[in-house]
Amino acid sequence: MQNYQHVVDGRTSDLPLGKVVCVGRNYAAHAKELNNPVPTEPVLFIKPNTSLVNLEEPLDIPSHLGECHFEAEMSILIGQTLSNCTQEQASDAIVGIGLALDLTLRELQQELKEKGLPWEKAKSFDGACPVSGFVPITQGTNLQDQQIILLQNQQLKQNGNTEDMITPVLALLSYISRFFTLLPGDIVLTGTPAGVGPLKPGDQLSLSLSDSIHCITEVGPSAG
After folding, report:
1. Contacts of 13 (CB under 8 A, 6+ apart)
2. Assigned domain for 40 exists
């Protein structure tokens, strides 16, 4: 069904396709824009590997299920097994960083939240996690100083820095590993800055992560 493969430093990786562990409300401004409380500990949910698609290919959104919103995030590709790990072990396990969209069926998510039900139908559908290639981190890479920018039809929508995360990356990986063992090939989405909004067919999105990654994609005809 999918032709997605992990790409690291411009080359296809032999890492398997694993799960995607996502972090909700890791930027206070984003939590507030959706009228959600700012959490006191990370909010975690999972997308299956069937949600993975290439960020630079046209996005097929299931518009027949309601508004689909973009949420740009820094992604982390895991290369070693992590379980109850320290932050140092987490750092050693990072293969690279990239960009991702946590596509969200916002109206459906709100309905599920109001009923006290899980979000998966709104967050984990096929194609719900477009991701870029990954760039290796170097000794000078500061995970907490990465600028995330998204333009929709040349209009700036999201412009945030990872320094504003409520829970920083390494602490986040350590926390996640207390509940879910992270395996080689898993991806972690670290949260989205404020400015999320709806997509419509024909939209063009331009995303960047500091000076490391630049992606352009467009929204194709509605799936469904």
Report:
1. 5, 6, 7, 77, 95
2. yes
Which residues of the chain are modeled with pLDDT < 70? 1-2, 30-36, 222-224
- Output b/e per residue, 152-161; b: 16+ Cβ within 10 A: beeeebbebb
Domain count, the chain: 1
- The CA distance from 19 to 52, in Å, is 9
- pTM, 2 dp: 0.94
- What pLDDT shows up at residue 222? 62
How far is residue 130 from each of residues 8, 47, 57, 85, 161, measured CA to CA in Å?
15, 11, 9, 27, 20
Neighbouring residues of 205: CB distance < 8 A, sequence distance ≥ 6 = 59, 70, 101, 150, 151, 152, 199, 215, 216, 217, 218, 219
Distances (CA, A) of 116 to 23, 47, 110, 111: 18, 19, 10, 9
Q: Which two tokens stand for residue 123?
A: 């967050």
Q: Is 48 domain-assigned? A: yes
Which pLDDT does position 103 carry in this prediction?
Answer: 97
CATH number, position 167: 3.90.850.10
Q: Which domain holds residue 148?
A: 7-218
The pLDDT assigned to 206 comes to 98
**In the prediction, which pLDDT does 186 show?**
98
